[in-house]
Amino acid sequence: MAITRAECQALDARDPLRDVRDEFALPPGIVYLLGNSLGALPRRTPERVARTVETEWGVHMGASWNTAGWWDLPESTGDRIAPLIGAGPGQVLAGDSTSVNIFKAVTGALPLRPGRRVVVSDLDNFPTDRYVVQGAVAALGSYEIRDIGSGAGLAGLEDALGDDVALVLLSQVDYRTGALRDMAAVTRQVHEAGAIMIWDLCHSAGAVPVEVGEADLAVGCTYKYLNGGPGAPAYIYVAPRHQEAVRNVISGWHGHAAPFAFEPDYRPATGVRRFATGSPPVLSYAALNASLDIWERVDLREVRAKSQAMTSLFIELVDDAGTDLVLATPRDPERRGSQVSYRHPDGYPVVRALADRGVVGDFREPDVMRFGFAPLYLRYVDAYDAATALAEVLREDLWRDERYARRLTVT
Amino acid sequence: MAITRAECQALDARDPLRDVRDEFALPPGIVYLLGNSLGALPRRTPERVARTVETEWGVHMGASWNTAGWWDLPESTGDRIAPLIGAGPGQVLAGDSTSVNIFKAVTGALPLRPGRRVVVSDLDNFPTDRYVVQGAVAALGSYEIRDIGSGAGLAGLEDALGDDVALVLLSQVDYRTGALRDMAAVTRQVHEAGAIMIWDLCHSAGAVPVEVGEADLAVGCTYKYLNGGPGAPAYIYVAPRHQEAVRNVISGWHGHAAPFAFEPDYRPATGVRRFATGSPPVLSYAALNASLDIWERVDLREVRAKSQAMTSLFIELVDDAGTDLVLATPRDPERRGSQVSYRHPDGYPVVRALADRGVVGDFREPDVMRFGFAPLYLRYVDAYDAATALAEVLREDLWRDERYARRLTVT
After folding, report:
1. Is residue A188 flagged as an active site residue?
2. Domain with CATH 3.40.640.10 in chain A
3. Is B306 a known active-site residue?
4. What is the CATH T-level fold of the domain A47-295, as seen in this structure?
């Protein structure tokens, strides 16, 4: 191979983020390339969650809504996510799931473009983005969806745009291929057509330095690169210029202007708080906030540089191994997020065989193997070991063992 | 007073639920009468949450979606809530907040009654029920809301019903007064008018033995009497006869028939699973499930008997003290849930003064002091001590101290 394991260890020794790995509790003997799906556990998260459970809930009980800041968690947590997506204070609200936030964003933004009845979606969008748009459009009536074809890129978007388009919903990073869109260019293109741009940042926040820029709204999750824990609160970004015009269709009491006045009628809070709905799952916010403590201390440019170097290294090593894999991720590091994907007709058993050898990736239909490189806790030597194991599984046909064929519920 | 503290201690010694109190971690010196708002911490919850964080997430990581049953949490947890509301397996799904579930229930059920354009709500409903209906109706268009006046009861409902009514949304227990509605009678009345009945069980599940019976849909929370923790997952009940007809408007991938096929179009799962939307907040489910372990072992008839006896005792003791409080809760124990409320023009500082003396209740605008009696962990002697403290705060005008006037964010 073009680079030796010892050389990878030397890269790790020079890595400016090398100490950040110590902030994570990683099981021994595992190369965890699934941080693009569920991030690793930060070492201080258990203590933070335990404090919330045992002290805030167990000792101070209901008073913690005030004294522990529970009531403000959607805003205070949102303000800590904001720098990771290029947003400012009062622009991001943490809560609900990504899917629920997509629903809020789409149904809230459509009335901003009265008379326009088309929502542009993308066959490459993560399915829930598509499903939620379909449900919203069916419920609202009189809207239609226009799909950009798979892999059509900017030209496909141009074809879909027109003066009937109310909004466009796209992912910054393609969940299958890891391809990275130019947010600023796409947002400009959509705005030139007079439409609203909503971004899904699930696969980009924490993987690349995101700049929401001129985007109108954005949503994302915190359990992937942000390491907030399984099902951690998602978030919604609403540009300040829209905050008083966009209504939250799921208008629950946590988004009311005076929630404890118990007024008979809904009256939205000012600012991003109006996008809150019901009681926040406090324990899940505690875990997320423990992770955000780490993010406050890292330089996103260093994260990006390491991500690009690690993914390039992995691609080179797999190239050198001479497998029959087809790279699904752009070779240009400027055009990808922090994952590397390969197509292989037997990708599923290959991923299972790899996991049995301690290299954890995942599989997405129909034929995509995904390997996520979370720069906060992965080392160059992990990329080396993963590429070596992948080459071996393919070279030795280890994936043909029949126990790897059986599908698990969650693939 | 009509009964002595020693007599209350004797009642506690005979209480068939007396050992259940040991399952809770209660701070010393506090009489916690806020279990109707945030239930106490079960003693085994910290360990259960820690296991989910440190082992399921920290060690097994993404594999836990399969191996720890994370993917199935909405259904498996729902099946454990079901017996508490008189429902069967496959009828309850745990997830999201109550407000989001109200939105799903209302928007999903309205198409069951095509041509009928009225939603009946109640000025006594908890505000979020009203707010969410208002948001849903505004988004869907062409529906209107008809309000039942405050305190109007069954006659008010009869006046509101008509052949234009599509659905009725009511709470079984009034959040201010604790008044208990006859679910079976109201459901029958609504069905006779041809409308859909949706119940909000937030203030009743765990407080009284609920029987969903012929109800069409129901929603509820788990952080009050069910002790699931702050912002614990809420739930939705959908009667089996409606499960294939009601669609989930917030149609996310967790409710898809084949979520890992990543199909381009939404196709709802069969059964109650279709009401799932996005990734479940796993840590919050862990806490809830620790509490449901306790609920599996208690007899709901004993819970109800103790609730009625404790609330009756409290009312008698406050009666005997000769205060100027006005009882807002029905005197007939068959007609109330598990809380006792009093009206007092200075209810807010009275509640604050009581809290300073270790008796924790809360206040609801405009003048209601609420005292929740959670039968799993409260004792008769707690009711005695609370009534004694309340009488003293009023008799000695202790609430007039100016530091009690200042409103906290969360009241």
Report:
1. no
2. 47-295
3. no
4. Aspartate Aminotransferase; domain 2 (3.40.640)
The region of weakest confidence among A55-59, A246-250, B154-158, B336-340 is B154-158
- Alpha helix positions (H), B142-181: 153-160
CA distance A205 to A216: 17
DSSP string, A80-107: HHGGGGT--TTSEEE-S-HHHHHHHHHH
User: Tens digits of per-residue pLDDT, B170-206?
Assistant: 999 999 999 999 999 999 999 999 999 999 999 999 9
* Mean pLDDT within A89-116: 98
- Catalytic position from the list B103, B223, B342, B348: B223
Distance in angstroms (rounded) separating the CA atoms of residues B263 and A131: 9
Domain(s) labelled CATH 3.90.1150.10 in chain A stretch across 5-17+299-404
Identify whether B200 is a catalytic site residue. Answer: yes
CB contact under 8 A, A278 and B248: no
CB B276 within 8 Å of CB B71: no
| Digit-coded pLDDT (tens) for B361-400 | 999 999 999 999 999 999 999 999 999 999 999 999 999 9
Which pair of tokens denotes residue A383? 């990329």
> Which residues in B lie closer than 8 A to residue A25 (C-beta atoms)?
54, 58
Q: A-chain residues within 8 Å CB-CB of B252?
A: 97, 99-100, 102-103, 128, 131-132
Residue with tokens 């709901």: B300
Please give the CATH topology (third level) of the domain spanning B5-17+299-404. Answer: Aspartate Aminotransferase, domain 1 (3.90.1150)
Cβ(A325)–Cβ(A344) below 8 Å: yes
At residue A150, the pLDDT reads 81
Q: Which of A46, A43, A45 lies closest to A21, judged by CA?
A: A43
Mutate to test the interface with A, among B64, B283, B359, B368 (most CBs of A within 10 A): B283
Residue whose C-alpha is closest to residue B409's, from A274, A51, A68: A68
Among B50, B223, B234, select the one facing A46 at the smallest CB separation.
Answer: B50
Chain A CB contacts of B285 under 8 Å are: 231
Task: State yes or no: ipTM above 0.85.
Answer: yes
CA-to-CA separations, B100 to A103, A193, A362, B131, in angstroms, rounded: 11, 33, 31, 11
A55 contacts chain B (CB < 8 A): no
Active-site annotation holds for A223: yes
